[in-house]
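This part of the workshop introduces the protein records we will be handling. An example says more than a description, so a record of this kind follows.
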Amino acid sequence: MAAKDRYHEHVKNALRKDGWTITHDPYTLKWQARKKRNLMIDLAAEKLLLAEKDARKIAVEIKSFISSSVMEDLYNAIGQFVLYRKALRQKDAERVLYLAVRREAYDELFSDPADNSLLREDGIKLLVFEPETMEIVQWIPPITS
């Protein structure tokens, strides 16, 4: 089993505080069944929408961005996000994938509107969290409840 990200429990607690129920930790997807390969997304969660009597389903991949090369971290995170999103579309299309990043990493990498073409053009969805308070501070794009 892959090692959990440094902020795994922080994000898990932030999701719970926000009303989400953790359904998988980790969330395993079969990929290329003939070769028996699995992908392991950090978390899966659901939130009951009372008005619709339905559940919103998400998967969350958590990234710390704490290595000596923030660009290498970004490269790895985006590549993993794209692969996981493709697998989800094939195996669990109603679940939406989010990349969880600390507010500090968001401010450094994604907050400048001129530089966030990854978010706009490539459809990267972010869950921005504050590790100290274990709270979600922003969903990008905003999630509707």
